[in-house]
Amino acid sequence: MELITPDFGLIFWQLIVFGILFFLLAKFAWKPIIQSLAEREQSIDEAIKLSETTRAEMAELKAGNEQLIASARAERDALIKQAKEASDAMISQAKLDAQTAANQEIEKARVAFEQEKASAVAAIRKEAATLSLDLAEKVLKSQLKDKAAQEKLVTEWMADVKLS
Amino acid sequence: MQVKTSTQKMYFSNILLGLFLSFISLNVFANEPVAAHDSASHDTAAHATAPAAQEAKTEKFDPGKLILHHIADEHDWHFFTIGHFHATLPLPCIVYTESAGLQVFSSSNFKNEHHEEIAYNGFVLEHGKIHAENGEKVYDFSITKNVASLLLSAVLLLSIFIGIGKKYKENPHRAPKGLQSLFEPIIIFVRDEIAKNNIGEKHYRRFMPYLLTIFFFIWFNNMLGLIPGGANLTGNIAVTLVLAIIAFFVTNFNGRSTYWTHIFAMPGVPKWMLVILTPVEIVGIFMKPFSLMVRLFANITAGHIILLSLVSLIFIFENAALGLAVVPFSLFMNVIELIVAFIQAFIFTMLVSTYIGAAVEEHHH
């Protein structure tokens, strides 16, 4: 029976000691422990969330980058194509221009040549005429020493003139 | 005690050696008290038989007396006795009587130089209780073995957990180190598995200091009681009574309307049934803490009784060879008791938190 009869003294001490123990532990042990555990868990939680959002952002950024690179590449290709077309056009234009210029020059040269040729021919003709006149004069002078011959010649020429 | 037969002495040394080795392997931190406990138990065994042996050497050893003596409180802390040497720590007696007022003296005053009980200053120590010789009522506030153990555990708890608390305050975001990492999982266990699960996310934080205090108080004292020579504090009805009373007040002071409605007018029950149900519920208010008190007391005391009974077997049969069977079995029981120490602390805290959970529960019908 003694075993289940609570001792007054022990109840007294237990109340006091447990009360003080509770007060001190609550203030100096449990409060900082619980608080910092909660804080730590929260900070870990936040860190995990942050890393997740960062990862998502990184992925998004990467996708954006790739898109950007693709569009830049397309733009570059277009530019190159355009430039090539322009340069081709310029080259063909230049060729055409050169061709026309050359043709004109050739034409001019030909015209000049024709003129030169014509004048040369004229000059030669003139020269030949003079020569033949001189020749004729000399021949005539020699033939026209007698009167008969002169007359014969004149009639011949007269006939010729009629003919021509 | 003064007289010992030679056979007793021989048994004593053999068994002491066996138990000593077994206990050493059991508790690393209990090197010294280990020896103390073994000697204490044998010695008290011898002690119990000794006065009888003086009169008639054939009188039987009384295990019941030995066990009850060991699980009860005492006014001095007796560790062991070897021959005429008593390793006893005298504790202060603080008594109050109406005629003599408050008196403080050492418990060693109750023993003379021959270790016989004597009266001191008008007080006598009988069966571990102080009585006044003139029959007056004595209010005994003595620092008994249990109170000393209680103070010791309080110092232990304070130094451990305030030390840990400081570390948390210094760098709250660091991973725990040392003692901190030993207790952090247990603290989190109490928080998540006991408090959060039973009280609920909304209110649990308020009760954490109380729940942690009772959990560690019970657990530490259960384990201190297992150290040979230690006091049977949590197996003392006065201690569990106080713990239960505190639980009673914490529960009922936090009772919300839902809680009281469930007690006085259980919803969804026919009116006439309330005549039966309400008294049952009212009894339930008191039965809950009462069960807490009895459960802890009975479990811890039973554990001590089993261990002491096993050791007593050797003395009952007066056969040292029995030690070969008893020592391994008591070792096994001691390990079981270590588990029980934790489980009882867990169950007590768990049940208190379910009671609190029921008290603070919001209306949800």
From TrEMBL, chain A:
Entry similarity comment: Belongs to the ATPase B chain family.
Keywords for this protein: ATP synthesis, Cell membrane, CF(0), Coiled coil, Hydrogen ion transport, Ion transport, Membrane, Transmembrane, Transmembrane helix, Transport
Organism encoding this protein: Aquirufa novilacunae
Pfam families: ATP-synt_B
Domain of life: Bacteria
Function text: Component of the F(0) channel, it forms part of the peripheral stalk, linking F(1) to F(0). The b'-subunit is a diverged and duplicated form of b found in plants and photosynthetic bacteria.
Keyword Membrane: yes
Coiled coil feature spans: 69-116
TM annotation in the entry: 12-30
Name of protein: ATP synthase subunit b
InterPro entries registered for this protein in UniProt: ATP_synth_B-like_membr_sf, ATP_synth_b/b'su_bac/chlpt, ATP_synth_F0_bsu_bac, ATP_synthase_B_chain
Membrane topology: Single-pass membrane protein
Lineage: Bacteria, Pseudomonadati, Bacteroidota, Cytophagia, Cytophagales
Annotated localization: Cell membrane; Endomembrane system
Assembly, per entry: F-type ATPases have 2 components, F(1) - the catalytic core - and F(0) - the membrane proton channel. F(1) has five subunits: alpha(3), beta(3), gamma(1), delta(1), epsilon(1). F(0) has three main subunits: a(1), b(2) and c(10-14). The alpha and beta chains form an alternating ring which encloses part of the gamma chain. F(1) is attached to F(0) by a central stalk formed by the gamma and epsilon chains, while a peripheral stalk is formed by the delta and b chains. F-type ATPases have 2 components, F(1) - the catalytic core - and F(0) - the membrane proton channel. F(1) has five subunits: alpha(3), beta(3), gamma(1), delta(1), epsilon(1). F(0) has four main subunits: a(1), b(2) and c(10-14). The alpha and beta chains form an alternating ring which encloses part of the gamma chain. F(1) is attached to F(0) by a central stalk formed by the gamma and epsilon chains, while a peripheral stalk is formed by the delta and b chains.
PANTHER family per the UniProt record, alphabetical: ATP SYNTHASE SUBUNIT B (PTHR33445:SF1), ATP SYNTHASE SUBUNIT B', CHLOROPLASTIC (PTHR33445)
